[in-house]
Structure formats: structure tokens, C-alpha cells
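Repro:
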Amino acid sequence: MDALADLARVLELLGCPPEKSGEMAAQLDKRARQLAAQKQGTYDESLQYLLGLMKQGWAAQARGF
């Protein structure tokens, strides 16, 4: 399986519009790699952190904030 396609499906489950999930997955992947390099952490830790932020943002948007 393609890792970006898997990530896009996860984003959709978290509330990302399907038509934007591919583009957002690519951006999220790129940023997770940047964060991992900057903070000398792992890609998985960075990705988990970013996914958490996105999930919080979509939850707030759904509540009308």
C-alpha cells in the first residue's frame, strides 16, 4: 500500500474532506519529516503530533468555533 494513500484515509476518518485528503496527506508528510529533522525526533512522533493538532482543529470547527 502507498503510505500517502493510507495517510489520506486516516485524515478522512478524522474529518478531512475527501477531495482534499491527498493534498493534505502530502503536506502533512512533508511537515512531519521537517519536524523530525529539526527536533531530532522520529517521523512517527512528529506525524502523531501533527495528526493530533489536526484532529483538535476539526473537532473545534465542528463545534462552531
